[in-house]
């Protein structure tokens, strides 16, 4: 039978990147004691009040069909959240989606198609290439340099732009690097976007998990308002990824045009999830603060746990749920080190190469496990790094 080309375009973008994680899960299933630091899922539960609100809404019959934009209360709560950042935001700027991932998918369908280029930093979040290719477009990678903390630079963006480019897909705070773009960097990047008439799609799902530095966004710059769309969700901010509740906020003309796309895809969101999201956005909930403290502390544990190993360098994250460590000093690539770590030390981490070429010397370590587990993982990483460095020196 014949299949549409989207199935081939996405074929290699799925499980290949997760081969090590999949292997670790297999080993675990067969009884091996593996420390799993591969994926980032909040290890705190969502606030009890959110679960209560969800149940209250269900019991009150809030399970009927909704509409394409979203339930009035959640649309208004999202508009209010962004109005605190830019005064002109109204309900007309908001579209609800089941999570940032779906928002990204729909937004990309609305902005790019076959032949178009989408600029995106390398390293990048694992699903971005699929989102771009699903729309028929192709990624145009902007190198994010390790020695510049993986912050996107104006000149690197400028050099990467081709005449086909229509969209810049930004991610701040960034996964996997934890980089948080500064206001000055956003201004410089925005200038390039304006000059080349690019849309800016900004994935801000880690907005509330900034440990150091100040969050900044092109959305907050009135000069970039006509070309910027934010996508985000309550997955990270409220430790509620399974609820699948997110949104896109952009120019009214954009949301007007995207509404039929969203309606065609989804036919609306679940009202009880919408009520819970509205509650989350309009009440003081301290989950994000607790995660900031916890993940920031665990990142420091990694710095402390590995600082005595000369062959390994930790890049302290500015935000998010991950820390990157550079293992080039051991003589191994990130990929080779990660597989050896799994086989010899029973620790599963993501090789940086799963996220692009610029992070190939790095490992990405999830901060969503207990402090003691992180400390034990560091001991094992240190042991492998020392073993490999000694073997290398002996051979030299
Ligand atoms: C950068 C980034 N964007 C989007 C997502 C997906 O978020 P959501 O659960 O809102 O779909 C993730 C999840 O890890 C992420 O790291």
Describe the structure.
With 396 residues, the chain is α/β, with parallel strands linked by helices. 41% of the residues lie in helices and 15% in strands. It has 13 helices and 12 strands. Helix 6 links the parallel strand 3 and strand 4 (138-143). Helix 3 (48-59) packs antiparallel against helix 10, helix 5 (100-111) packs across helix 9 and helix 12 crosses helix 13 (371-395). The mean pLDDT is 96. Pyridoxal-5'-phosphate binds next to helix 5.
Strands, helices and their partners?
Blueprint: H1 6-9, H2 19-29, E1 35-37, H3 48-59, H4 72-83, E2 94-97, H5 100-111, E3 117-122, H6 128-134, E4 138-143, H7 154-160, E5 165-171, H8 183-195, E6 199-203, E7 228-233, E8 246-249, H9 252-266, H10 271-282, H11 287-306, E9 313-315, E10 322-326, H12 334-345, E11 347-351, E12 362-366, H13 371-395
Parallel strand pairs: 1-11, 3-4, 3-5, 5-6, 6-7
Antiparallel strand pairs: 2-8, 7-8, 9-10, 10-12, 11-12
Helix pairs in contact: 3-10, 4-10, 5-6, 5-9, 11-13, 12-13
Bound molecules: pyridoxal-5'-phosphate (PLP).
């Amino acid at each position: 039978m014949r299949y549409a080309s989207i199935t081939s375009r996405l074929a290699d973008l799925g499980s290949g990147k997760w081969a090590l994680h999949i292997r670790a899960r297999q080993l675990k299933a067969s009884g091996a004691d593996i420390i799993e630091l591969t994926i980032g899922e909040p290890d705190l539960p969502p606030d009890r009040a959110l679960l209560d609100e969800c149940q209250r809404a269900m019991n009150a019959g809030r399970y009927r069909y909704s509409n394409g934009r979203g339930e009035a209360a959640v649309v208004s709560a999202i508009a209010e959240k962004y109005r605190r950042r830019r005064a002109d935001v109204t309900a007309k700027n908001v579209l609800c989606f089941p999570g940032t991932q779906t928002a990204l998918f729909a937004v990309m369908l609305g902005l790019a198609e076959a032949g178009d280029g989408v600029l995106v930093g390398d390293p990048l979040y694992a699903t971005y290439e699929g989102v771009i290719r699903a729309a028929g477009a192709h990624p145009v990678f902007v190198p994010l340099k390790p020695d510049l903390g993986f912050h996107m630079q104006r000149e690197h963006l400028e050099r990467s732009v081709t005449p086909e480019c229509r969209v810049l897909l930004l991610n701040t705070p960034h996964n996997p690097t934890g980089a948080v773009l500064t206001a000055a960097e956003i201004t410089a990047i925005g200038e390039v976007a304006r000059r080349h008439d690019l849309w800016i799609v900004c994935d801000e799902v880690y907005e509330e998990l900034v440990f150091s530095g100040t969050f900044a966004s092109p959305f907050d710059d009135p000069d970039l308002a006509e070309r910027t769309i934010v996508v985000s969700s309550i997955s990270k901010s409220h430790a509620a990824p399974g609820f699948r509740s997110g949104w896109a906020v952009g120019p009214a003309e954009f949301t007007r045009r995207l509404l039929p796309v969203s309606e065609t895809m989804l036919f609306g969101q679940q009202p009880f999830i919408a009520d819970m999201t509205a509650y989350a956005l309009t009440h003081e909930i301290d989950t994000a603060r607790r995660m900031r403290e916890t993940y920031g502390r665990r990142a420091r544990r990694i710095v402390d746990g590995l600082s005595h190993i000369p062959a390994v360098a930790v890049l302290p994250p500015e935000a998010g749920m991950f820390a990157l460590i550079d293992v080039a000093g051991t003589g191994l690539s990130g990929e080779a080190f990660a597989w050896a770590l799994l086989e010899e030390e029973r620790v599963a981490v993501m090789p940086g190469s799963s996220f692009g070429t610029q992070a190939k010397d790095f490992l990405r370590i999830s901060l969503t496990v207990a402090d003691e587990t992180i400390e034990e993982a560091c001991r094992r990483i240190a042991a492998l790094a020392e073993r490999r460095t000694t073997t290398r020196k002996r051979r030299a």
